[in-house]
Task: structure prediction
Amino acid sequence: MLRGVTEALPGPSAPSPGAPLRSPLGSNLDGVRQHNLGTVLRLVHGTPGRSRSELTRVTGLSRSTIGALVSELSALGLVKEEEPREPTGVGRPSPIVVANPDVVVVTVNPEIDGVVVGVVGLDGTVHRRARHTTDAPPTAPEAARIVADQLEGLATPSGTGLRVAGVGAAVPGSVRVADGVVRMAPHLEWVDEPFAALLEEATGLKALVANDASLGANAEHLFGAGRGIDDLVYFNGGAGGIGGGVITHGRPLAGSSGYAGELGHMLVNSAGDRCHCGAVGCLETEVSQARLRDALGVDDLEAASVDAEPLDAASRREVERQLGYLAIAIRNAVNVLNPRRVVLGGFLGALLGLDPALLDAEVRAQSLAASAEQVEVVRAELGAAVLTVGAAELAFTRLIADPIALQR
Ligand SMILES: [Zn+2]
Result:
């Protein structure tokens, strides 16, 4: 049976994902200890592990302090120590500290025709990712019930030993992160749905909810095409439209309520069509997966063969039209946010792949020279798992901010 640790995590009134986790130095000894435990856990989370000596070097803490922190995290069941896989030279090898893969987050991503449920370990392993098809867009209570059913499925007669640290949900819409209320998800037809509360009621676990593309941006920043890049802008194109997320100074930009980063509703054509949001000429009305598919005559835009196909004149015109409007959106992001990298996911990655030189030239020609001189436009790396990884991170961020809470 799963052992829930629902009481362990802070409630939905805790700070938004974009807020600082806590001050660098705690206000008292407990605060410092908690901060240091979180620092070590953050360094091993999502990695194959790090040696004690590496942790000592990276944190600047003493060997004995690192030893005490690792022992405490081990006692909390959050990390394990393993012998190094390869000899490290002369002397006694330093054991490798690895995140415990059995501490997991359950993830949810409701879509227009189904719900994707995942299980992700603290070490970054995606243990499971399954799609449950629905005949119509799932309602919020229905999506919560599907997640609860999956939790039952995770239990085995012998017990899996998994410890669930919470539920993280990635929703294609505007989400008030403070209480996990989905204000508007147009393609799901959800308005003011208290999704976090519904998930908590259905599963008995703490649930956190945020906008899908914002979570995707954070996932690419931590584990994908934005690794090591502190300032990036992420555009993700899907069947339902274009979402976005911004990482600035290494942290997700949330805005006052969590709605920041709606890059798909940036104005790119003042003479364009009316968008479902009510405005005219949004990026997602000009650049669309359906129109690109029609122009290219392919079902799967992300297939490797798409960019190798020679294009006829009409297809080429549509590709250039969409690349032109995408360049305008990227120009706006570059001039406003000065990112080091722009990451394009979903069908936008395929669009980039059709003519990367043209998009790069358009972005550079239009942007302020100083703002654009260091920017790179690249394709996302995490593929279909990006929202599962991003949603898991939402709950892991809370756990890392307060590792002791697991035992309270
Ligand atoms: Zn719009």
